[in-house]
Fold:
Amino acid sequence: GRTGRVALGSAKAQIGDAGCAATMAGLIRTVLCLHHGYVPGTSGWRRPAAALADDFAASALYVPDASRPWLRRTAGSRRYASVGFIGASGAHGHLTLSAEATRGALVPGDWQRAGGPVVLPLSADTFDGLLSAVERHRELLDAGSDPYALARDAARELTGR
Structure:
């Protein structure tokens, strides 16, 4: 195949409609693909709809009809993969993941020194509860709270829900 192509996959094609477990299945599948350097084939895939065939063929996208190794462009390059989801409640999400060039190596990082964006994972049982959590964290940030400490605390709180 051509280089620089992007494989599209679906956990649902492998396991059927998993309901609320579909997001986790897709995330786990993506992490395993990155870790093992392998792209699974998509069950039942034949070809795109006729109306999309020309655009699909001209794009960098493809659906693997058979499993295959996921080779790196160079020895030191990373693999990247994304997983998107839409929950039954209407929640949407998208994650982009990458695999280190040396599988299994631990890479320490000082995220605070890196100065990048900070994700505050917030959750609530109701929409109003979520809005309250957002407002509370906005006030804490406006008051000068450490965003990295808030992110750690929010993640810890989320895992206890």
